[in-house]
User: Fold these one by one.
Assistant:
Number 1:
Amino acid sequence: MRWQPTLDRTMIVAPHPDDDVIAAGGLIQRIVAGGGEVSVVYVTDGENNPWPQRYMKRKWMLGADDRAEWGAMRRREALASLERLRVPSEATRFLAFPDQKITALARRGDMRLRDELRQAIESFRPTLIVSPSGRDVHSDHRTIAWFTHAAAGAIDVTTYVVHSAPRADRLIGTVILSEREQRRKCEAIECHASQLLLSRARFMAHAGPTESFCAPEFDLVRVDSTVRQWSLALAHALGVVTGAVPAPIGSRVQPTADVQDRAGDVTGLL
Ligand SMILES: [Zn+2]
């Protein structure tokens, strides 16, 4: 059956400032152009981002003040980026959970993030929640997927993968960006200047002509053990260093043009 989301009020859950535009910069434009509303919930400020921080500040040891300053800068970048996509700053919510430490919170049974996501959902009343994926190689993304699914209730959910490739067997929708949409998405990604310092090619690779959205993952999300978290962190680090995209977790199957075709462009579904 073809996926037919109601996009009128779409909430995007972004583990870090930039995931929203990387994963859904085209979808956001499509919704805004169709008269729908977009809300973005940033779970962390992306403040624990040491290599670009060291490079920019020419400083090896980073303290709490450095991280706070970096997080504030990343918030500004996120707002500038959304402005390029015509999403106003009032449509954003920054939850300021600790960057790179979300899985540790979940393992301790700390459910405050689920509760804050529920509040955001009650306040915005989304028709669709765009969640990170439990199959992403980044542990913040996997655990935030678990929290988001726990908060979603009966609301329609779709998922996106940033640090890996989407699994072909989970793909349910694509956005094929027009040249104009792609150009504007590039401009929005460019607003995240701090992330382009050391990883420009990797970031701009997300500005391609297609965005992929996957099925909800009520059957897949879970909280990682320490061993699983560290083994996948290694895969993530190797991907960052080598520039290679890590294989999708749990499947070697790559999406094909045929599968993307069946998944269908969400154009015109508003
Ligand atoms: Zn992220």
Number 2:
Amino acid sequence: MTCRVLWVSILVSAALAAAFVLGLQRQASRVSTARLAAARYAEPAPSVSASDEHPPPRLPPVLALKQIYTLNQTAFIPPQCYTNTIDDAGTAHNPCYTCHVESRAPNYINDPDVQLEYAFVPRARKNPWANLFVDWSSEIATVGDAAILSYVHTSNYFDVAGRIILAEKLARPPRTWDHGDDGRWEGFIPDAYFRFDAAGFDLRPDGTRTGWRAYAYHPLPGTFWPTNGSFGDVLVRLPAAFRERSDGKPDDLIYEVNLAIVEALVTRQTVLIEPVDERLVDVDLDGDGRLGRSERGEGAT
Ligand code: HEC
């Protein structure tokens, strides 16, 4: 069976940046909480050497997305790579295996070797994620239980009228966020309502589908488990062309079949679906050599 290349957008609300590896970092550099000064544009990035210690970022009161400032020139290497692999009792642990693996196409980064070797370029040998070592205890001590419970119980995604706060804001982006200076936000605008029907499809307040679909997933082992303080929703949405018939009309069945094809491609397993007339999608889903009725989609060959 031939398959088209499908672009899958994945919305992970629990961002990697939020995953702290508390107490486990290889080098706990001491960082004082610098005074945060207001600035629209920050200074250019300093050149860094392995011996540099970086202060925490100076963010203006209005988060300046126009700020271009490289504090960490090896930021593509996440803090997880600096996890201390020897615990207090002297026992070795290997958390690196969760990400650095023998890869399977189309992932061509085959790097299980870094599980055994501290293979950083010199500049990256010292943990540059100084922001993870800021001691916030005095700030935290000023926040009472009632305040934090009220914060947790208040949505910062929807306003009281059920509108998506960030989408409303991006409809007329603040000047400090507007790179193009044209009053338009060019990037992604959140549009998931987290209101799912029985099949996992996200519904707008008017009951129409947004295209986002929730699916069962295992969080990556490590800091990403709910037991370690991390939680999130994972949704998938295929581009409009995969949600429509050839005449451009939205079609739920075609979308469900396309999602099943994606699942079969990713998991490389047969995916069971509701019986479907293959002529509708013009694809021999069950690979039996003819366009008939199919109850399964085969992985790509
Ligand atoms: C959460 C996933 C994750 C974990 C866990 C993780 N890494 Fe990484 N690591 C990455 C990513 C992403 C990169 C950047 C992309 C790349 O270079 O592969 C990276 C990069 C690296 C690099 C630089 C590779 C290069 O080509 O420059 C080294 C070395 C490394 N990690 C070592 C480790 C070690 C040692 C551990 C365990 C203590 C570890 N990593 C744990 C995700 C992870």
Number 3:
Amino acid sequence: MKTKVCTKCGEEKPLTEFYRDRQKSDGLSSSCKICAQAKKKEYYEANQEKVKASVAAYREANQEKVKAKNAAYREANKEKVKAQKAAFHEANPEKVKAHSDAYYKANKEKIAARRAECRAYQKEMREMQEEAGFEISDLNQGEQC
Ligand SMILES: [Zn+2]
């Protein structure tokens, strides 16, 4: 069995214990799989904050872009998103109910406030409509309570 000595831990190991590395003359990494994994983990741990910070900075700098992209996606895939949602609801009625119950419990006041606001808005619109004496077509397409 062919073996190779890991330059990191100095152990002699079978070639299957080394990752491929095309840049090396023998086509194999100079350190064994275990050492390579440890190094990767070490790098990730050492740079976790840096990676996180750069992701956050990107988001911050491109907030509008990200938002616009999301909105454009939603707009372009309205039917798809709707169908996916409906299919999920159909397949997971218990899960959806539990989730919405939990959401409702956690956000009761927020939801109530939004509903009140929404009702006030609709009432205002209705009154405007009555005053104007004709239908405002946007009325029912606006906020749903
Ligand atoms: Zn090693």
Number 4:
Amino acid sequence: MKMAEWKCQDCGKVFKTEQDLLSHELEHVPRYECAVCGEEFKTKEEAYLHEVGKHGRPPATDPVPVKRPA
Ligand SMILES: [Zn+2]
Ligand SMILES: [Zn+2]
């Protein structure tokens, strides 16, 4: 009997468990990081609102997507 394979639709990498695949897929999601505290957000807007709301200032630079090594 063949083991079930969990394959990443983005890069084709194969994992033994669904859990491994799910944690891997997070690496493909672009994130925006707060320059002050490093908190991560899904959108640039969220990151901006966080910096203004929490740190009381607009970010000095645009939040950039954080690309994690696969
Ligand atoms: Zn992948
Ligand atoms: Zn922050």
